[in-house]
Design a protein that fits this description.
This protein is α/β, with parallel strands linked by helices. The protein is 36% helix and 15% strand. The strands form 5 sheets. Strands 11-10-12-13 form a 4-stranded parallel β-sheet, with helices on both faces. Strands 2-1-4 form a 3-stranded antiparallel β-sheet, covered by helices on one side. A two-stranded antiparallel ribbon has the order 3-5.
């Protein structure tokens, strides 16, 4: 990672929306999925919605910076062991150079994936060797965009025999033969192999839930946003963006998103199939707006 690299709010916004697949080259390793790096097949539309950047050149630059951003996040973010769940965005994605290893040779892919994140997964994150997987200058993206990922040849260090690097990361002792070659039992090798394949889910959970100390994030000073001081509540499914993307737009414009409607709510944004929040907004006389009106407010 470049010493001058500065991790920003835009990097964090993209990291939270990264979709992790499995690179099938060499021994295999987690990769930010080339088909849907930030959730949909349209990389530039996703970057625009998540960061507010509109110039294509600036979006390309930011995406290329995500190799360093990923390295930084894996080094500095923290996540407690525990059980985590996330929506399976690979459910309807066909396998290519990147696959969903959690569904390999299975008939169906689940809507939601539940995963037990452990200290061992965190230790491997700290040792992960991140690389850029393709030439960004080519712009021949029929098979997917270039993205960062963990090196599928040497995922956790410099050793071709990756189990040695895993043992080092996990502080596991092992024997060597008379020639100095590492010796692992069949049980150890199977354990390493299983743990390595777990890293697709582990990385996805880490990108979604790990916390980064606020002082490590550069907050660019901007003029007061046009939603400054406004409090929003979201209800129902939006057509052109996820709730997380809508929240990002509101916060970048100076607004705030809460889960419940109260007298302090400024606007309720209503999508398809709204819930009881709409009824409460009407009861309290809170202004109700649709997605199109919300987007115009953000662009004003």
């Amino acid at each position: 990672m470049e010493e001058s690299f500065v991790f920003t709010e835009n990097h964090l916004s993209l990291i939270r929306n990264m979709v992790v697949g499995w690179d099938i080259t060499e021994i295999g390793a987690p990769i930010i999925h080339p088909q849907i790096p930030y959730g949909t097949p349209n990389l530039f539309k996703d970057i625009k919605q998540l960061t507010g950047i509109t110039k294509r050149g600036a979006m390309k630059t930011l995406h290329r910076e995500m190799e360093n951003a990923l390295i930084f996040f894996l080094e500095h973010a923290t996540l407690s062991p525990g059980h985590y769940s996330y929506p399976n965005k690979l459910k309807d994605i066909e396998d290519g150079e990147a696959i969903d290893i959690t569904a390999y040779e299975k008939d169906e892919k689940p809507e939601t994936i539940s995963f037990q994140f452990t200290d061992n997964h965190l230790k491997l994150m700290r040792y992960a060797s991140v690389r850029w997987n393709d030439d960004w200058e080519d712009e021949d993206w029929e098979d997917g965009y270039p993205t960062p990922g963990i090196d599928p040849k040497r995922p956790y260090g410099a050793m071709t025999y990756y189990e040695i690097d895993m043992a080092t990361a996990l502080d596991i002792k092992y024997d060597v033969d008379k020639n100095g070659h590492a010796m692992f039992s069949t049980e150890q090798e199977e354990s390493f192999h299983k743990l390595h394949e777990d890293m697709q889910c582990a990385l996805q959970v880490f990108l979604l839930y790990a916390e980064l100390s606020p002082e490590l994030i550069y907050h660019k000073k901007t003029q007061e946003g046009n939603l400054q001081g406004k409090v929003f509540v979201l209800t129902g499914a939006l057509e052109s963006m996820t709730r997380n993307q809508a929240k990002t737009l509101i916060e970048k414009a100076g607004g705030k998103v809460t889960d419940s409607v109260s007298k302090n709510t400024s606007f309720v944004i209503v999508g398809d199939s709204p819930g009881s929040k709409l009824d409460k907004a009407k009861k309290l006389g809170i202004p109700v707006i649709d997605e199109m009106t919300f987007k115009k407010m953000c662009e004003a």
